[in-house]
C-alpha cells in the first residue's frame, strides 16, 4: 500500500515539475513587439460595464490619454443593465468624439451576460481588430500601440499582461503575487503554442477570425469564459497564431479584491469553466494539477497515521513547488512587479495549496455572484 502511494506521489510531482518548467521555457520564447511601428488597420476598443460608478471615470480617462491617432481607433462602451449611475457618469465624462456608449435594450439570458454585452459591442465595431479591457481597469498611454503592433498577417489574437495595482494590505499583496503567477502561466503556455489561459482585461483579436469561429455562439451556456474559451477556439480550430505581448507598456492594472468574499466569488467564476474546455488533454492537465495539490494536503495526514516517510515526501513536494514557481515568478520582475518579497512568497506558497483545492471544487459546483447577479456556471 505504501509503495503504491509513493508511486502516486512521484508521478504527480514529476508531472507538476515538468508542467511548470515548460511554462518557464515558454516565457523565454515570447517575441518582442516593435511598438514604434503603427499598423494601418482601424482599431475598435470594446468595454462592457455594469455597476462601475467608482471605476468607470478613471478607466475612461486612461482610454482618452492614448498616444495613438484618434482617427485610427474608436471606443465602444456597452452598458450591461447597470442599476447605479455608471452610465450617467460615463456619458458626462466623455471628451472625445471617437468614444461611443450603447446600452443593451433587453435580455432573456440567465447566463453569459458579459458575452452578450461584448458581442453587442463587436456588432457595432468598425475596426478590423478588436481590443478588450474591463471597465474597472487602467490602461497605460501606449497600450493600443503596444498591443496591436504584434499583428501580422497570420496573427489572430494577442493576449496582454494584467496586474493588480499596488496595495498596502497583506491580503492585497498576496493577491498581487498569486495573480502574477496566473498571468505568467498564461504567457508561458502561449509561448509554448499551447494556449489555455487569458484575461479579457487585456485581449486583442481580428474581428474576421472572431466571426470565422462563430464568436460566442456555442459558449452562451456558460457564464464565464469570454476570454480563454474564445482563445482556445481560435488556437486549436484555426491555423492562425496566438501571441502574448510581454511588455510593461501594455500592462493593464486593476484593483485588488476588497474582501475575502469578493476574492472567493471571482475565483469561483474563473474556475467554473475548466471542465468545459473543448480539448480533453487540457482538462486532464487541470485534473492532474488539482490531484497534485490534493496530494500535498493529504501527505501530512499520511505521515501522522500511516508512515513518517510521508512527512519527507511532504517536505520534498513543498520544496520543489516553491523552487520552480519562484523561478517562473522571477520572469515577472520589471513587468508585473518590481521585486519578490521572500517572506510574502513563502506565505503565499503555503496558502496556495488549500486555495487551489477549494477554488477547483467550488468552481465545479458552479454557482457564484458577479456584479449583483446570482449566476450558475
Walk me through what this model shows:
The chain has a seven-stranded mixed beta sheet with strand order 3-2-1-4-8-6-9, with helices on both faces. Strands 5-10-7 form a three-stranded mixed beta sheet. Strands 11-12 form a two-stranded antiparallel sheet. Helix 1 crosses helix 6. The protein is of the alpha/beta class and 377 residues long. It folds into two domains: 2-25 and 279-375; 32-160 and 199-256, Alpha-Beta Complex (Spore Coat Polysaccharide Biosynthesis Protein SpsA, Chain A), CATH 3.90.550.10. Strand 2 (73-79), helix 3 (86-93) and strand 3 (99-103) form a beta-alpha-beta unit. The protein has twelve helices and twelve strands.
What's the topology here?
Layout: H1 2-28, E1 43-49, H2 56-64, E2 73-79, H3 86-93, E3 99-103, H4 113-124, E4 129-132, E5 137-138, H5 143-148, E6 155-159, E7 162-164, H6 170-191, E8 203-206, H7 207-212, H8 228-237, E9 241-244, E10 252-254, H9 260-271, H10 280-305, H11 309-329, H12 342-365, E11 368-370, E12 373-375
Helix pairs in contact: 1-6, 1-10, 1-11, 2-3, 6-12, 9-12, 10-11, 10-12, 11-12
Amino acid at each position: 500500500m505504501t509503495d503504491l502511494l509513493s508511486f502516486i506521489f512521484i508521478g504527480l510531482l514529476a508531472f507538476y515539475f515538468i508542467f511548470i518548467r515548460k511554462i518557464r521555457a515558454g516565457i523565454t520564447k515570447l517575441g518582442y513587439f516593435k511598438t514604434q511601428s503603427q499598423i494601418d488597420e482601424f482599431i475598435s476598443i470594446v468595454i462592457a460595464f455594469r455597476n462601475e460608478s467608482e471605476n468607470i471615470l478613471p478607466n475612461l480617462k486612461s482610454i482618452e490619454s492614448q498616444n495613438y491617432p484618434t482617427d485610427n481607433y474608436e471606443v465602444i462602451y456597452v452598458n450591461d443593465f447597470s442599476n447605479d449611475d455608471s452610465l450617467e457618469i460615463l456619458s458626462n465624462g466623455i471628451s472625445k468624439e471617437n468614444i461611443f456608449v450603447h446600452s443593451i435594450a433587453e435580455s432573456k439570458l440567465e447566463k453569459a451576460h458579459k458575452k452578450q454585452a461584448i458581442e453587442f459591442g463587436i456588432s457595432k465595431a468598425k475596426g478590423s481588430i478588436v481590443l478588450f479591457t474591463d471597465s474597472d481597469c487602467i490602461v497605460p498611454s501606449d497600450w493600443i500601440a503596444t498591443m496591436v503592433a504584434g499583428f501580422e498577417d497570420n496573427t489572430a489574437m494577442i493576449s496582454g499582461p494584467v496586474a493588480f495595482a499596488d496595495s498596502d494590505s497583506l491580503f492585497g499583496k498576496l493577491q498581487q503575487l498569486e495573480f502574477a503567477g496566473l498571468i505568467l502561466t498564461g504567457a508561458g503556455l502561449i509561448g509554448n503554442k499551447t494556449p489555455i489561459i487569458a484575461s479579457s482585461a487585456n485581449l486583442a483579436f481580428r474581428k474576421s477570425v472572431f466571426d470565422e469561429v462563430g464568436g460566442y455562439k456555442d459558449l452562451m451556456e456558460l457564464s464565464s469564459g469570454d476570454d480563454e474559451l474564445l482563445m482556445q477556439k481560435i488556437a486549436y480550430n484555426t491555423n492562425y497564431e496566438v501571441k502574448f505581448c510581454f511588455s510593461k507598456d501594455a500592462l493593464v492594472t486593476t484593483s485588488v479584491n476588497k474582501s475575502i468574499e469578493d476574492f472567493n466569488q471571482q475565483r469561483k467564476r474563473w474556475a467554473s469553466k475548466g471542465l468545459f474546455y473543448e480539448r480533453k488533454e487540457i482538462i486532464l492537465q487541470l485534473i492532474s494539477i488539482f490531484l497534485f495539490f490534493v496530494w500535498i494536503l493529504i501527505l501530512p495526514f499520511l505521515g501522522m497515521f500511516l508512515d513518517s516517510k510521508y512527512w519527507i515526501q511532504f517536505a520534498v513536494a513543498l520544496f520543489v513547488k516553491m523552487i520552480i514557481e519562484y523561478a517562473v515568478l522571477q520572469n515577472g520582475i520589471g513587468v508585473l512587479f518590481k521585486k519578490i518579497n521572500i517572506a510574502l512568497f513563502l506565505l503565499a506558497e503555503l496558502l496556495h495549496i488549500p486555495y487551489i483545492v477549494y477554488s477547483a471544487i467550488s468552481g465545479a459546483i458552479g454557482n457564484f455572484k458577479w456584479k449583483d447577479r446570482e449566476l450558475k456556471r
